[in-house]
Amino acid sequence: MKFRLLLFSAVLAHAQSFDKAAFEKYLRHVNLYLGEVTYKIDDPKPFPALAGFSEVDVHISSGQSSKDEVYYVSKDGTIVDGNVYKIGANPFQANLDKLNTRNAPSFGPADAPVTIVEFGDLQCPDCKMEAPALRQMLPQLFPGKVRVFFKDYPLESLHPWARSAAIAGRCVYRQNPQTFWKFYDWIYDQQEQLTTDNLHEKILAWAGAPGGVDAIQLGRCMDTKASEPEVNQSIAEGRMLQLRGTPTLFINGRKIGGLEAGTLQKVIQNELDYLAGRK
Predict the structure, then answer these.
(1) What pLDDT score does 237 carry?
(2) How far apart are the first and last CA of the chain?
(3) Do residues 170 and 231 make contact, with C-beta atoms less than 8 angstroms apart?
């Protein structure tokens, strides 16, 4: 197990109920945030992986910034702060439990031994650099062994048209799930030529070209922001998974930042070797 132990005898201390106010007061003392910070503490949930402990999700916000933390709390007031591992079990199961890939764009076989979930921002230069490795290198080097999902995580404070592009991408997906990947490739290829002012026009021009989608339907979807709830849901999921930037990859649940192509290849091969060794 990898964790930090804190002892807080006043949290539960043989009581039947969880004292959120006392818990928050203790965490504020431990974390020492000097600015104005708001805590939202969820109710404890059973956590079978660590006998006698409950899982408590804590949401911390300050201005436009926010993050989520997870603590494991026992009835005697012991707090485990960090990751809990059990030999033989997937060390990244907690991430897998929070990842929702239903109705997310994907390519690669459903039974692939390695699943990559990318949280990306369509205006992000680092995401553009990662895209060829995901789209071209991995299918060539590991045919039939990798499935890739895409989740939207537009960084609006940095990239002014990222949210609009995410909404458009989800609109394309609604029309034709596989055509989404043509949109994905195109928008990264055109990224440097796109602006807040010309994004809408250029996306509709792409849609009307051969291999695109119904431009009128797409324009209506973009104008009404019909797919925005799906983007918001993806952003909320990313925050719950404590994303710090884009691209962020989850490789069979392992959270890792964007990787240079050669390093990504090694990580995938390491995962395949590990899985083969367990058979």
Answers:
(1) 94
(2) 24
(3) yes
Task: Give the chain's length.
Answer: 279
Compute CA distances 264 → 7, 59, 134, 146, 234, whole Å. 39, 31, 9, 12, 24
- The strand pairing partners of 61, in sequence order, are 38, 66
Long-range contacts of 36-42 (CB under 8 A, 24+ apart): 36/62, 36/63, 37/61, 37/62, 38/62
Per-residue pLDDT tens digits for 187-211: 999 999 999 999 999 999 999 998 8
Cβ atoms of 14 and 76 closer than 8 Å: yes
Secondary structure class of 146 (helix, strand, coil): strand
The sign of the CA dihedral 181, 140, 271, 113 is positive
| Mean pLDDT lowest among 6-10, 220-224, 268-272 | 6-10
Q: Is 113 helix (H, G, I), strand (E, B) or coil?
A: coil
Report the distance separating Cα 45 and Cα 177, nearest Å.
36
Domains of the chain: 2-89 (no CATH), 95-277 (3.40.30.10)
DSSP 24: H
Query: Partners of 152 in the beta sheet?
Result: 120
Strands 78-83 and 2-7: antiparallel
Give Cα separations from 216 to 117, 175, 206, 248, 257 (angstroms).
31, 12, 12, 33, 37
Is residue 255 a contact partner of residue 119, using CB atoms and an 8 Å limit?
no
